Amino acid sequence: MSENETYDVVVIGGGVAGLSGAMALGRSRRSVLVVDAGEPRNAPADHAHNYLGREGAPPLELLADGRAEVAAYDVEVVTDRVVGLSGEVDGFLVTTEGGRRYGARRVLVTGGVVDELPDVPGLAERWGIDVLHCPYCHGWEVRDQALAILATTPMAAHQGLLFSQLSDDVVMVVHDGVELPDEELEKLGAIGVRVVHGTPQEVVAKDDGDALVGLRLADGSILERQAIVVASRPHVRADYLGPLGIEPQPFEMGGAVLGSVIAVEPTGATSVPGVFAAGNATDISMTLMASAAHGNRVGAWINAELASADADSAVRARRDGFFEQPAWEERYSGDRVWSGRVNVQLAAEAPSLTPGRALDIGCGEGGDAIWLASQGWEVTAVDFAEAALARTTEHAREAGVEDRVHTRQVDVRTFEPTGETWDLVTSHFFHLPDGGMPDVVRRLAAAVAPGGTLLVVGHHPEDLTTGLRHGHTSFMFTSDELVPAVPPDFVVEVSEARPRTQAHPETGEEIAVADAVLRARRTS
Ligand SMILES: Cc1cc2nc3c(=O)[nH]c(=O)nc-3n(C[C@H](O)[C@H](O)[C@H](O)COP(=O)(O)OP(=O)(O)OC[C@H]3O[C@@H](n4cnc5c(N)ncnc54)[C@H](O)[C@@H]3O)c2cc1C
What we know:
Blueprint: E1 6-12, H1 16-26, E2 32-36, H2 59-71, E3 76-79, E4 82-88, E5 91-96, E6 101-109, E7 113-116, E8 131-132, H3 135-138, E9 147-151, H4 156-163, E10 170-174, H5 182-190, E11 194-197, E12 202-205, E13 212-216, E14 222-224, E15 227-229, E16 233-236, E17 249-253, E18 256-261, E19 275-277, H6 288-322, H7 325-331, H8 344-349, E20 357-361, H9 367-374, E21 378-383, H10 386-399, E22 405-409, E23 422-428, H11 437-445, E24 448-459, H12 479-482, E25 490-503, E26 510-522
Parallel strand pairs: 1-2, 1-6, 2-3, 6-19, 8-15, 9-10, 9-15, 10-11, 20-21, 20-23, 21-22, 23-24
Antiparallel strand pairs: 4-5, 5-6, 7-16, 12-13, 13-14, 17-18, 24-26, 25-26
Helix pairs in contact: 1-2, 1-6, 4-5
Bound molecules: flavin-adenine dinucleotide (FAD).
């Protein structure tokens, strides 16, 4: 038993809906716990019918087999009753009558309903035996028998139509205060259903209780019957949802309120994120098969939601890691990463400038810094990865420009030039997630000497359609997004999406891409 553990999903109720939901989830390798009190709605009946593949199986045997089947997918089942549910999505706490506590990312409520029966002495004792409600569940078993239908609501006329399919001997016993519409009475008469009025006094059984005798009617006479049909009033079993704000809602059919359920979306989602419900708890008209199918489908929806949430957190984790120093130290600890050639836009812009002091942000392996040095610039090459600076130094030495390339370890996200300035401040393909670049532009602008140039180049968001920039969605930018961060004492000379081509890394095909190019000159 994994008490105090956190599961992907805790399923409350291990009837056919709950176990079928657990099946879908377990087979998707979700960690699942089913807490079940062991009282399925049809427990009073000896056999379950209308269930393809297991026709006539005893209800508890059906569920015992279901428990064994889900166990094969590592679903845990515990016999206990949930009495409390608190917390929120990804952090629910489920507490039980037995004093157990479980954590859950999602909760599937499949506790079913409890049937409130008409108040006729002797009726409840025979519920599920020869007191019935559903023609599809046990109508065949009482075919051709003498049947009574207790009309406690006008909906009884509907039951009259369905049970008269199965027997020619059906008597509708209309309780005091219940009015069956005239057209319904006419239909019942036309199909041979007899109608008597008055609330019956009691259900009469043989002395040994073994068999039904019939109904003692309002006038004291006995109406001999072999089975009695009633409309129960099913109420959802989910008091523990109240504190979360989920209250039972009336279940209406044909304009009449027939019981209560939990309201859900087509996905099984309730009004509380992370809490789902399925089966009879959401629709009292569902039979076993419908409840099982619903539970299974909602289980799949929960799995889909979890899969999506898992992918989102994987993206966040990767993004967070991707932009941190350790990831770049590791990247520069293996094979050479970049070509070493100067970036195209730097080669296009720099020749119009008079060489002086240049600050190269995110210098990587030094390609741009070394090119600038070869053009006569005195370069400060900065990066937050020590491994990058070591490579820049090494490559500058190999290129014979080590005296004009000076490395410095700087995290540009917190860079403060503190009065030091450069004639060219340049950043090529330095990106930050979630709109972080304007702040970097502000910091870099502060490092530009009067008359100097700021040149920022990045991947343009349109490149996402090229298939070359998987996973870049949140950190590409347009030059227009950066312009507001350029201080007023600058003139923006270039702000554009500049086309170029790039070879596809696998096919070698030249793909049309665009660079976001911002060039601004400081006037004072
Ligand atoms: C007498 C009778 C006979 C029926 N016969 C048939 C039939 O032959 N064929 C047919 O198709 N339909 C039949 N039905 C309808 C059938 O019972 C339901 O459609 C079906 O049981 C609904 O399945 P479920 O999983 O939603 O709920 P249930 O089967 O009721 O299962 C809910 C489970 O949740 C548990 N639970 C509830 N609250 C908690 C809690 N707080 N903590 C832990 N566990 C909890 C319950 O103990 C139960 O085990 C019959 C109904 C009745 C009343």
